[in-house]
Design a protein that fits this description.
Blueprint: E1 10-17, H1 22-32, E2 37-44, E3 49-56, H2 61-76, E4 82-87, E5 92-98, H3 103-113, E6 119-126, H4 132-136, E7 142-144, H5 152-163, E8 169-172, H6 181-187, E9 191-196, H7 207-214, E10 218-225, E11 235-242, H8 249-272, E12 276-279, E13 282-285
Parallel strand pairs: 5-6, 5-8, 6-7, 8-9
Antiparallel strand pairs: 1-3, 1-4, 2-3, 9-10, 10-11, 12-13
Helix pairs in contact: 3-8, 7-8
Length: 286
Amino acid sequence: MAIADDHPTSRLLLACPDRPGLIAAVSGFLAQASLNIVDADQHSSHEGRFFMRMAFEPAPEAERAGLYRRFREEIAEPFEMEHRFAESDERKRVAVMVSREDHCLSDLLWRWRSGGLGAEIVCVISNHPDHAEQVESVGLPFHHVPVDPEDRAGAELRVLELLGEGVDLLVLARYMQILSGDFLRRLEAPAINIHHSFLPAFVGADPYARAHERGVKLIGATAHYVTEDLDAGPIIDQDVTRVSHRDETEDLMRIGRDIERLVLARAVKAHIDDRVLLDGARTIVF
């Protein structure tokens, strides 16, 4: 059932040990509260874990705290559930970090301006000044924070200061600097990164040139949550496309940029719409 974007819903995401009666318990609780379920999806893993995302017509705002407390006491605790509620009309605050390449940034700005992102971009931060005019022309704050290799901690502190009251999500739209574990902890919000994912993989400088030299036939992109382990966080979205000997290095770069912006947009949208649950080092994406 498709739900119109202007129709508010409450969202419930949960994970727990798999056992009979879980769906009945949750749906029965909402039915007793006279709340209509408008969308539901679930998955049981081979490891015996149960995951579910349910969207339902929201209770009156004044009643939500009591309803969610009763759910915790009557359903979540007895079934050992990790769970959270989210409201579709509470728009998430998103910050974007970018370096010189702007294809992912431009795509996110277009989606935000067209109303398709479902969140508010609050600022753009870059270690280069290149995109100031583009960002400020759409009415968003642009902050240039250069990164001194001898004082990366200072640059990270400045970014945290600029984020001020905090954000719900940080998007690394081709931000070509490594963020420290201390920064990620102090950020207190998830971060999503995008990078190419060649098959076979090429790391280091000029990956497209090296891929062309080796005659790569598949190129792609991976969007993942950021952790202290470089490019090893839980994967949210991926895609690949075929290329051939007819594609020169510049063609591979163009194709790669197209895949990157689409994969990043899908991953960001999935997170904003509360469709991602973590299962250890992997994700469940509804």
